[in-house]
Amino acid sequence: MNFQVTVLKILVSYPDGFAVMEDLKRDMAILATSGRDWADRTKRLAARVPDLDIFSQGLVERISGGWQITAKGRAVLEFMETRPAAPEPLQAPLAEEAPAELVAAPQIPPLRQPVDRAKRRRERRERRREARERARANAS
Protein backbone atom coordinates (compact mmCIF):
# COMPACT_ATOMS: atom_id res chain seq x y z
CA MET A 1 0.00 0.00 0.00
CA ASN A 2 1.32 3.44 -0.89
CA PHE A 3 0.96 5.63 2.21
CA GLN A 4 0.96 8.99 0.43
CA VAL A 5 -1.64 8.04 -2.17
CA THR A 6 -3.80 6.56 0.57
CA VAL A 7 -3.61 9.80 2.56
CA LEU A 8 -4.72 11.80 -0.50
CA LYS A 9 -7.60 9.40 -1.18
CA ILE A 10 -8.76 9.52 2.44
CA LEU A 11 -8.58 13.31 2.72
CA VAL A 12 -10.43 13.92 -0.53
CA SER A 13 -13.34 11.85 0.85
CA TYR A 14 -13.85 14.22 3.83
CA PRO A 15 -15.77 17.50 3.73
CA ASP A 16 -13.38 20.36 3.05
CA GLY A 17 -10.65 17.72 2.65
CA PHE A 18 -9.86 17.87 6.38
CA ALA A 19 -9.57 14.91 8.74
CA VAL A 20 -8.34 14.72 12.32
CA MET A 21 -5.53 12.27 13.03
CA GLU A 22 -7.83 9.79 14.76
CA ASP A 23 -10.00 9.51 11.63
CA LEU A 24 -6.96 9.27 9.35
CA LYS A 25 -5.46 6.45 11.42
CA ARG A 26 -8.74 4.55 11.50
CA ASP A 27 -9.29 4.89 7.75
CA MET A 28 -5.67 3.90 7.06
CA ALA A 29 -6.05 0.77 9.18
CA ILE A 30 -9.21 -0.20 7.31
CA LEU A 31 -7.59 0.27 3.91
CA ALA A 32 -4.33 -1.41 4.94
CA THR A 33 -6.23 -4.55 5.89
CA SER A 34 -8.66 -4.46 2.97
CA GLY A 35 -6.62 -6.77 0.82
CA ARG A 36 -4.44 -6.86 -2.23
CA ASP A 37 -6.76 -4.78 -4.45
CA TRP A 38 -6.15 -1.57 -2.51
CA ALA A 39 -2.39 -2.10 -2.42
CA ASP A 40 -2.31 -2.74 -6.17
CA ARG A 41 -4.48 0.29 -6.88
CA THR A 42 -2.34 2.68 -4.82
CA LYS A 43 0.79 1.27 -6.43
CA ARG A 44 -0.65 1.97 -9.91
CA LEU A 45 -1.66 5.50 -8.91
CA ALA A 46 1.74 6.22 -7.34
CA ALA A 47 3.46 5.09 -10.54
CA ARG A 48 1.88 8.08 -12.33
CA VAL A 49 3.77 10.49 -9.99
CA PRO A 50 7.01 8.70 -9.04
CA ASP A 51 8.52 11.48 -6.86
CA LEU A 52 5.36 12.07 -4.83
CA ASP A 53 5.93 13.82 -1.49
CA ILE A 54 2.62 15.13 -0.16
CA PHE A 55 4.11 17.54 2.38
CA SER A 56 7.13 19.06 0.59
CA GLN A 57 5.08 19.47 -2.61
CA GLY A 58 2.29 21.26 -0.75
CA LEU A 59 -0.38 18.65 -1.46
CA VAL A 60 -1.35 18.24 2.21
CA GLU A 61 -1.18 20.72 5.10
CA ARG A 62 -0.95 19.91 8.80
CA ILE A 63 -3.51 22.03 10.68
CA SER A 64 -5.48 21.90 13.94
CA GLY A 65 -4.60 18.35 14.93
CA GLY A 66 -5.32 16.96 11.49
CA TRP A 67 -4.39 17.09 7.84
CA GLN A 68 -6.10 18.85 4.94
CA ILE A 69 -5.68 18.26 1.22
CA THR A 70 -4.90 21.40 -0.79
CA ALA A 71 -6.22 22.40 -4.21
CA LYS A 72 -2.86 21.28 -5.64
CA GLY A 73 -3.29 17.93 -3.87
CA ARG A 74 -6.72 17.49 -5.43
CA ALA A 75 -5.29 18.28 -8.86
CA VAL A 76 -2.44 15.79 -8.47
CA LEU A 77 -4.85 13.09 -7.28
CA GLU A 78 -7.14 13.79 -10.23
CA PHE A 79 -4.15 13.48 -12.57
CA MET A 80 -3.18 10.14 -10.99
CA GLU A 81 -6.72 8.84 -11.36
CA THR A 82 -7.23 9.80 -15.00
CA ARG A 83 -6.68 6.91 -17.29
CA PRO A 84 -3.64 7.32 -19.50
CA ALA A 85 -4.47 7.77 -23.16
CA ALA A 86 -4.28 4.59 -25.16
CA PRO A 87 -1.05 4.44 -27.14
CA GLU A 88 -1.38 4.93 -30.87
CA PRO A 89 -1.16 1.64 -32.77
CA LEU A 90 1.88 1.34 -35.00
CA GLN A 91 -0.26 0.78 -38.06
CA ALA A 92 -3.92 1.77 -37.78
CA PRO A 93 -6.29 -0.64 -39.52
CA LEU A 94 -8.71 0.77 -42.07
CA ALA A 95 -12.15 1.50 -40.63
CA GLU A 96 -13.82 -1.10 -42.82
CA GLU A 97 -11.36 -3.76 -41.61
CA ALA A 98 -11.78 -3.01 -37.91
CA PRO A 99 -14.59 -4.66 -35.94
CA ALA A 100 -17.46 -2.28 -35.11
CA GLU A 101 -16.82 -2.44 -31.35
CA LEU A 102 -13.24 -1.18 -31.84
CA VAL A 103 -14.25 1.69 -34.13
CA ALA A 104 -16.78 3.21 -31.70
CA ALA A 105 -15.69 2.04 -28.26
CA PRO A 106 -18.05 3.52 -25.67
CA GLN A 107 -16.71 5.41 -22.66
CA ILE A 108 -17.16 3.42 -19.47
CA PRO A 109 -18.89 5.57 -16.84
CA PRO A 110 -17.54 5.48 -13.29
CA LEU A 111 -19.29 3.19 -10.84
CA ARG A 112 -21.95 4.88 -8.76
CA GLN A 113 -22.54 4.24 -5.09
CA PRO A 114 -25.98 3.14 -3.98
CA VAL A 115 -27.99 6.16 -2.86
CA ASP A 116 -28.42 5.02 0.74
CA ARG A 117 -24.68 4.43 1.16
CA ALA A 118 -23.85 7.86 -0.20
CA LYS A 119 -26.47 9.41 2.07
CA ARG A 120 -25.03 7.72 5.17
CA ARG A 121 -21.55 8.86 4.18
CA ARG A 122 -22.72 12.48 3.77
CA GLU A 123 -24.43 12.33 7.16
CA ARG A 124 -21.23 11.02 8.83
CA ARG A 125 -19.19 13.77 7.19
CA GLU A 126 -21.68 16.39 8.37
CA ARG A 127 -21.57 15.06 11.95
CA ARG A 128 -17.75 15.13 11.92
CA ARG A 129 -17.72 18.66 10.52
CA GLU A 130 -20.15 19.84 13.22
CA ALA A 131 -18.05 18.15 15.92
CA ARG A 132 -14.90 19.90 14.63
CA GLU A 133 -16.72 23.25 14.61
CA ARG A 134 -17.93 22.70 18.18
CA ALA A 135 -14.41 21.76 19.26
CA ARG A 136 -12.97 24.87 17.62
CA ALA A 137 -15.65 27.05 19.25
CA ASN A 138 -14.95 25.53 22.68
CA ALA A 139 -11.21 26.01 22.25
CA SER A 140 -11.67 29.75 21.60
Structure, explained:
This protein is mostly helical and 140 residues long. The protein has 6 helices and 3 strands. The chain has helices at 3-12, 21-32, 36-48, 71-81, 100-103, 115-139, and strands spanning 18-20, 60-63, 66-69. A 3-stranded antiparallel β-sheet has the order 1-3-2. β2 (60-63) and β3 form a beta hairpin. α1 (3-12) packs across α2 (21-32). The mean pLDDT is 80.
Can you lay out the helices and strands and say which pair or pack?
Blueprint: H1 3-12, E1 18-20, H2 21-32, H3 36-48, E2 60-63, E3 66-69, H4 71-81, H5 100-103, H6 115-139
Helix pairs in contact: 1-2, 1-3, 3-4
Can you summarize the main beta sheet?
3 strands, antiparallel
Task: Let me know the number of strands.
Answer: 3
Percent strand equals 5-15%
Which word captures the global form?
globular
Structural class: mainly alpha
Neighbour order of strands in the largest sheet? 1-3-2
Write the element-wise H/E pattern from the N-terminal end onward.
HEHHEEHHH
- Helical content stands at 40-55%
Radius of gyration: 20 Å
Quote the average pLDDT.
80
Count of alpha and pi helical runs:
6
Distance between the termini: 39 Å
Low-confidence sequence ranges = none
Characterize this entry briefly:
With 140 residues, this protein is mainly alpha-helical.
Task: Describe the structure using short key phrases.
globular, 140 residues, three-stranded antiparallel beta sheet, mainly alpha, single chain
